[in-house]
Write a structure and sequence with these properties.
The structure holds three protein chains of three kinds. Chain A is α/β, with parallel strands linked by helices. Chain A has helices spanning about 5-10, 35-50, 70, 85-95, 105-115, 115-125, 165, 175-180, 195-215, 225-230, 235-250, and strands at about 55-60, 75-80, 100-105, 130-135, 135-140, 145, 185-190, 215-225, 250-255. Chain A has one domain: 3-Layer(aba) Sandwich (Rossmann fold). The longest helix of chain A is centred in the C-terminal third of the chain and has 20 residues, at about 195-215. In chain C, helix 3 runs parallel beside helix 4 and helix 10 packs across helix 11.
Chain lengths: ~260, ~180, ~350
C-alpha cells in the first residue's frame, strides 16, 4: 500500500508521463474492461484537442455501446437513431460546413440497420468523418450476431456458430465504401497495441485535415474487441482478434488521396 | 357568379394547360379561381381532366361532381361526363374522334372543330386555344385580353414568341364555334 | 407590406413559402402526390439566393434524420412526404419530439392502408394527432384548407416549432397539394443568423457542451422529461387552438370538417342554407390542439353534429369527446381516395342527424 504522501509525489505535474486529455470528461466510462471503445474515444479526443477543434466539432453518436459517447467527450454531440448517424451528420455538415463533423458507429449500427445511410452519405461525398468500430458483435444488447460476425463465430443468436448458408456472410463495409467515388480516405486500423493506437490516431488526424479540403467522406474502420460478448479475457480477445479477425479484415489503407 | 368547368380528353391534348390558362386569365380579371387536376399515372397517355372554377366569391369546394360547362375532347370523356352537366349547362366538344354525339336535351351543346381547324392553320399545338376561344364565345366571363395576359403569365418566357399564334387560334375558336 | 400574387399548386406554395420563410434546409424523397415540393425547390435552387440547402435523400428515413441533424443545429429545417413515406419517418419524428427539436413536416395525405392510392385522403388523422411513432408525444398539427394556407402555415409552422421546441406537422392532402389557387406570398425573410442556446454548433469555452438526445436510462429522469413534455403539450392546448367558423351564429346543426372536407362542407352549408336549413361549419385549423372547448360550447346550441372526413371516422372520436354526449354526433366519410361531394354531405346530414 502506497502512503498518501507517496501518491501526491507521484501525481506531481513534473512526474506525469500520461494524462487524460481535456476533451475527455471526468465521467466514468461505461465500457467493459479491456474494450477498445475507451482507447478509440481517447485518441479521437486527443486529436480534437491537439488540433484545437473543440469549438468546431459536432459529433454524432449511434445506438449501441457508444450511445453515451456524449457523456465522455466534451464537445457538442447529437445522439442519432439506430443506423442514421450518417444522415444526421450529412445535414449538420451541409448546414454548418465550416465545422468538423464526425459519426462514431458500431457494426450493427453502420453495417446492418444503417447500411443505406452509410453507403449513400459516402456516395454523395459528404464531407464528414465516419468512425466505424467493428467488433463483430452487438455488444450493448448482449452479444447477438452482427453483420460483421465471422463465419462459424458464436454469438447469442448464432449459438452454433454463424452458418453463412442460412445467416449470410460477414459484410465488408469498408471495402464497399472504398469503391465509391464519394470517399476520399478509407482505412482499416485497430487500437489493441500502442503501435496500432498511434497509427489509428494518425489516421484520425489525417481525416481531420482532409475534411478541411472538402474532398469527400473519410472512413476509418477500427477492428476492435468485445471481451464480454466474445466471452474472453481482454488479453485473449486481443489475441483472438489478431488471429481470427485480422485475416478477414486486414489492417491498412484501402483508399488514400492521390497526392 | 360562379362557373364550374370540367375540361377532359386525352393526356397530351393540352387539357391541363388549357385549364391553367383559363385559371390564370381569371386571376388577371381579379376573380377567384381553382384548378384541380386528375393526377397520377392516368395522365400519361390515358384520359386527363381538370376542374376549373372561376368565381367572383371565395370558392368553397374545388371538387364538384356537377358542372356548368363541360369541355369534352374524346369519346371516353363524353361517355363519362355528359351526365355530369347541370341541367341548362353547356357542353362544348370537338367532333374529331367522337363516334356517338351528345344525347342530352336539357343542356346546350356546342361544337368546335378545333382539330380540323388547327390542321388547317398548320399549328396542331394551338388546338386547345381554338377550343378555349370557343368557350370564351359561349361563356364570356373572361375578356380575351385577360386570356392573353394569362398566357403570358403561364408560359415560360422562352415561349412568348408563340403568343401571337395562340391569339390567332383563340380568335379563330371564337369564330368557328357553333350551336348544335 | 405588398404581397406577391401567384397562381400555384399547394405543393409549389409550400416550397416557395419555405424559401421565403428563410428556411435553412429541406430534405425530401419523391412520392406522389407531393413530389412537386422537392422538384420546385430543386428548380428554384435557393442555395444560390438565400443559401437554403435542398437535398434529395436516399429514403424518407434518411430525410427525417437529416431533419433531426439540422434541427439540432438550431436551423429551420423541414421535410415533406405522403402517407407511406410519413409512416417511414415515424421513428425519426418520435426522436425529434423526444429531443424537443423544432422542425416542419408536411404530409400530403393519400389513401391507404399500405401502398393504397395516390388520390387524396384524410386517413392519417390518428397517426398525426395521437402520436404516430412510439412514446407519449404530440406534434402541433396544422390543417390547411387552401393553397394560401399551404403557404401561410409554413411560416406559422416554423414559428410554433421554435416557440415550443416541438415538431409541427402540416396535414394536407392530395387535393390541396395538387390544386392551383391564388396565393399571396410573403416577402423574403432573411435566414436567421442567431442560434438557439441549446443548439449543437460547436462548443465554445464559454458554455457547457450541448447534447441533443432523447435517451435517459434512468427511469426517474425519463419520467421527469415526460412530465416536462406533457406540461408543454398542455400549454399548447391552452394557447394555440385555431379554428374557423362558417355561419355558426344561428346554426341548429353543425358540420365539423378540416382541410379538403371543410371546403366540401362549406359548399354543403350553402346548399343547405338555400333550402332554409340552419347549418354551420366548424373547421379545426389546428388538429392538435383540437378545438375541444369551442365544439363543446356549440354542442349547447345545436341539435346534432356531423363530422365529415375522408376516412372511416377518426376525427369524429375527438368530436365525440368534445361533445361528451350532449347531442348526437355522427360520422360521414368517403375512403380510399374519394372526396365526398357537397350533395352527399347534404344527404348524410339529413339522414343521419336531421331526420334521425
Amino acid at each position: 500500500m502506497i502512503e498518501v504522501t507517496g501518491i501526491k509525489e507521484i501525481i506531481k505535474p513534473e512526474n506525469l508521463v500520461y494524462k487524460k486529455t481535456k476533451i475527455m470528461t471526468d465521467n466514468t466510462l461505461s465500457y467493459c474492461p479491456g474494450c477498445g471503445h475507451g482507447t478509440a474515444h481517447r485518441i479521437l479526443a486527443e486529436v480534437i484537442d491537439e488540433e484545437g477543434l473543440q469549438s468546431q466539432t459536432i459529433g454524432v453518436s449511434p445506438v449501441g455501446c457508444s450511445v453515451l459517447l456524449y457523456n465522455y467527450l466534451d464537445v457538442d454531440i447529437q445522439q442519432a437513431a439506430h443506423g442514421r448517424a450518417p444522415a444526421v451528420a450529412t445535414a449538420i455538415k451541409r448546414l454548418l460546413p465550416d465545422k468538423f463533423v464526425f459519426t462514431y458507429q458500431g457494426d450493427g449500427d453502420l453495417a446492418a440497420i444503417g447500411t443505406a445511410e452509410t453507403i449513400h452519405a459516402c456516395n454523395r461525398g459528404e464531407n464528414i468523418l465516419i468512425i466505424f468500430i467493428n467488433n463483430g458483435i452487438y455488444g450493448m444488447t448482449g452479444g447477438q450476431m452482427a453483420p460483421t460476425t465471422l463465419p462459424g463465430m458464436k454469438s447469442s443468436t448464432s449459438p452454433y456458430g454463424r452458418d453463412v448458408k442460412t445467416m449470410g456472410n460477414p459484410l465488408k463495409m469498408t471495402d464497399i465504401v472504398a469503391t465509391l467515388p464519394g470517399t476520399y480516405y478509407v482505412t482499416r486500423q485497430s487500437v489493441h497495441t500502442p503501435a496500432n493506437v498511434r497509427k489509428t490516431k494518425k489516421a484520425i488526424r489525417k481525416a481531420v485535415q482532409y475534411q478541411k479540403l472538402d474532398k469527400g467522406a473519410c472512413f476509418i474502420e477500427i477492428v476492435s474487441n468485445c471481451p464480454s460478448g466474445w466471452k474472453m479475457t481482454p488479453v485473449q480477445s486481443n489475441k483472438w482478434m489478431e488471429e481470427t479477425m485480422f485475416p478477414y479484415y486486414p489492417l491498412g489503407d484501402l483508399k488514400t488521396p492521390e497526392e | 357568379m360562379t362557373e364550374e368547368i370540367i375540361i377532359t380528353g386525352f393526356g397530351g391534348q393540352g387539357v391541363l394547360s388549357m385549364g391553367k390558362i383559363m385559371a390564370y386569365s381569371g386571376v388577371m380579371q381579379d376573380m377567384e379561381v381553382s384548378w384541380m387536376p386528375s393526377y397520377g399515372p392516368e395522365m400519361r397517355g390515358g384520359t386527363a381532366n381538370v376542374t376549373v372554377i372561376i368565381s367572383s366569391e371565395r370558392i368553397s369546394s374545388p371538387i364538384v361532381r356537377h358542372f356548368d360547362t363541360a369541355i369534352i375532347l374524346n369519346q371516353q370523356s363524353l361517355d363519362k361526363f355528359e351526365s355530369s352537366i347541370k341541367p341548362g349547362g353547356v357542353l362544348i366538344y370537338d367532333s374529331n374522334g367522337i363516334t356517338r354525339h351528345p344525347e342530352r336535351k336539357d343542356i346546350v351543346v356546342y361544337r368546335v372543330d378545333a382539330t380540323e381547324e388547327a390542321a388547317r392553320m398548320n399549328s396542331s399545338k394551338t388546338f386547345n386555344m381554338i377550343v378555349l376561344g370557343g368557350f370564351l364565345k359561349v361563356k364570356p366571363l373572361i375578356k380575351l385580353e385577360n386570356v392573353i395576359k394569362g398566357l403570358k403569365k403561364s408560359l415560360p418566357e422562352r415561349y412568348h414568341n408563340l403568343i401571337p399564334m395562340n391569339e390567332k387560334a383563340l380568335k379563330r375558336g371564337i369564330e368557328i364555334i357553333q350551336k348544335v | 407590406m405588398k404581397k406577391e400574387l401567384r397562381l400555384m399548386k399547394g405543393n409549389e406554395a409550400v416550397a416557395e413559402a419555405a424559401i421565403r420563410a428563410g428556411a435553412d434546409g429541406y430534405f425530401g424523397y419523391p412520392i406522389t402526390p407531393q413530389s412537386e415540393i422537392l422538384e420546385y425547390l430543386m428548380e428554384a435552387n435557393p442555395a444560390e439566393t438565400t443559401g437554403m440547402v435542398v437535398l434529395q435523400a436516399e429514403s424518407e428515413v434518411a430525410a427525417i434524420n437529416m431533419v433531426y441533424g439540422g434541427a439540432a443545429c438550431g436551423k429551420k429545417v423541414m421535410t415533406s412526404s405522403s402517407s407511406p413515406g410519413i409512416s417511414l419517418k415515424q421513428e425519426g419524428i418520435s426522436y425529434i419530439a423526444g429531443a424537443e427539436l423544432p422542425c416542419l413536416i408536411v404530409n400530403v395525405v393519400r389513401g391507404g392502408p399500405g401502398l393504397g392510392t395516390i388520390q387524396p385522403a384524410q386517413s392519417d388523422y390518428f397517426q398525426s394527432v395521437k402520436g404516430g411513432g412510439h412514446g407519449d408525444y404530440h406534434l402541433i398539427v396544422l390543417a390547411p384548407a387552401s393553397v394560401q394556407e399551404m403557404a401561410d402555415f409554413v411560416d406559422l409552422g416554423f414559428d410554433l416549432a421554435f416557440k415550443y421546441r416541438n415538431p409541427v406537422l402540416i396535414l394536407s392532402d392530395g387535393a390541396i397539394g395538387q390544386m392551383m389557387e391564388k396565393v399571396y406570398l410573403s416577402q423574403q425573410k432573411e435566414r436567421s443568423k442567431v442560434f438557439p442556446d441549446w443548439a449543437t454548433t460547436g462548443k465554445p469555452a464559454t458554455r457547457e457542451r450541448n447534447i441533443i438526445t432523447s435517451l435517459d436510462l434512468d427511469p426517474n429522469g425519463m419520467e421527469m422529461h415526460n412530465h416536462k413534455l406533457q406540461a408543454k403539450y398542455n400549454e399548447i392546448r391552452e394557447k394555440e387552438v385555431r379554428y374557423e367558423e362558417f355561419q355558426c351564429e344561428d346554426a341548429e346543426y353543425l358540420l365539423v370538417a378540416y382541410g379538403t372536407s371543410a371546403r366540401v362542407c362549406q359548399k354543403a352549408v350553402q346548399l343547405l342554407r338555400e333550402k332554409g336549413l340552419k347549418v354551420g361549419l366548424l373547421r379545426p385549423v389546428t388538429l392538435f390542439p383540437f378545438p375541444t372547448k369551442r365544439i363543446n360550447d356549440l354542442s349547447g346550441q345545436v341539435k346534432g353534429i356531423l363530422s365529415v372526413e375522408m376516412s372511416a371516422g377518426q376525427m369524429v372520436e375527438d368530436v365525440l369527446l368534445a361533445v361528451n354526449g350532449k347531442v348526437p354526433v355522427k360520422h360521414f366519410g368517403r375512403m380510399g381516395g374519394i372526396v365526398p361531394t357537397p350533395e352527399e354531405v347534404v344527404e348524410n346530414l339529413k339522414s343521419k342527424i336531421i331526420g334521425g
